[in-house]
Structures are given as C-alpha cells and as structure tokens.
Design goal:
Blueprint: H1 5-15, H2 19-36, E1 38-43, E2 55-58, H3 65-72, E3 80-85, H4 94-101, E4 104-106, H5 111-126, E5 130-133, H6 151-159, E6 163-169, H7 171-174, E7 185-191, H8 205-223
Parallel strand pairs: 1-7, 2-5, 2-6, 3-4, 3-5
Antiparallel strand pairs: 6-7
Helix pairs in contact: 1-2, 5-6
Length: 224
C-alpha cells in the first residue's frame, strides 16, 4: 500500500481517472491472496452481468470476504463500487482509496445520512456502475446468516437494477473473527441467478430481501 498504493492514489486524484487504481488493486488483491495461500473456487460465473449494472449481495462471515468477492468480480473493473459502512472511514489510506474509487459510505445508525447515501448510490447504479453490498452489516459471530438490512435493496429498486445473491463459504476457516492470522485454503464464491427488480417499488423491499437471503442461505447449506 505504501510503495504502490500512495503513488497510484495521487495519480488518480490528479487525473480524475480511477482505471489505474483498479489495475493496481487487482494486482494487489491477487498478490495478497496468493501469498496467503488462498485459492478461489468461483461458481456461477455466467451470473456475473457484464455490461449491465447490478447489485451483488454477499454474506459476511469474515474480514476476508470483501477482498475475495471484489477480486472474483474483477471482470467488472473499473465499473464496480462498494456500499460500505461508514465506520471503515477511520482506516488510514484506505479511506482515500475508497473516495478516489467512488465507493459510497453508509451510516447504518443515522437515517439522516443513510437515506441520502442510498439515493446517491442509486444514481451511480443507474448510471452504469455495479455495487457490492454485505447486507448483514457486520460479520456473523456464529457463521449463521444475520438479518439483512434494506438499504442496498432499496438502492437496487430505485435504480431498477437486478440483485445477484453471492454465497461465500470457507472464509471463516481462512480468517476467524478477531484473528490477524490468515490460514491457507480454498474459499468458494458462488454467484446465484440474478433476481430482477423491474417494476418493483419501495413496498416490495421486504420481499426482495427475503428472496435474496433465501437464495444465499440455500447455497451455504449445500456448500458447508
């Protein structure tokens, strides 16, 4: 991050073009996963919607899932963003990367901030960029799916963009909650068939949440 990340970040801010940032990010993710001995098993690549914006909703058992899912979606670079919890803005350097890449922070406990953030993200989504979300909002302590928060799904409905459920398994064995040690192994990332939102309204948000959650849960039950 220091040797490569800072110069690339400065270049991105100077020229206002994040393509180089994504190239460097892809290389950094590959290098980090390789050095850690992490292998990816990607299932359902045909459900990755190239050339069309979508919301990719993944379960969250470990801190290793965001980089793993992002790397699995590298074919969508640089038109890929993340709706992330605002607490991560406390991280040095990474917060600058998030801003330069156009990621959208969401304050889960502050509805006065979260609704405008969802509206902003929906406009970006409607403009052609896809999003990755982790609707549980935090890592599960037990590995069981937590209740899903609705912000990312409201965003999808507003933009009339499909939601692709993403089931990630093997991540807890690779990096346990509270641990700094990454263990080598295989992480499975399964992309389920997209769930369309065409014609849906705000009133349909709970049905959409339930459909996505059930799709992820069924695949996790099969993989574990």
């Amino acid at each position: 991050m220091i040797v490569v990340g800072i110069p690339v970040l400065l270049w991105t801010l100077l020229v206002r073009d994040h393509r180089l940032l994504y190239r460097a990010g892809k290389l950094g993710l590959w290098l980090g996963l390789t050095l850690a001995g992490i292998k990816l098993e990607v299932v359902g690549r045909e459900n990755i919607l190239k050339g069309r914006s979508a919301v990719y909703a993944a379960n969250h058992r470990s801190s290793i899932e965001p980089p793993v899912v992002f790397f699995a979606l590298r074919s969508l670079f640089p038109d890929l963003s993340i709706l992330y919890k605002a607490e991560l803005r406390k991280l040095p350097i990474l917060v600058w990367v998030f801003d330069a890449a156009g990621f959208v922070p969401l304050e889960r406990a502050n509805s006065g901030q979260s609704l405008p953030a969802v509206d902003r993200a929906a406009k970006v989504l409607a403009g052609g960029r896809s999003f990755v979300i982790f609707p549980e909002g935090t890592r599960s302590r037990t590995g069981e799916l937590l209740p899903f928060k609705k912000g990312g799904f409201i965003m999808a409905i507003q933009a009339q963009a499909p939601v692709v459920p993403v089931a990630v398994s093997g991540s807890r064995a690779a990096l346990k909650r509270g641990s700094m040690v990454i263990r080598s192994g295989t992480i499975r990332v399964e992309f389920a068939p997209p769930i369309p939102t065409t014609g849906m309204t705000f009133a349909d948000r709970s049905d959409l949440v339930n459909n996505v959650r059930e799709s992820i849960a069924s695949r996790l039950a099969t993989a574990t």
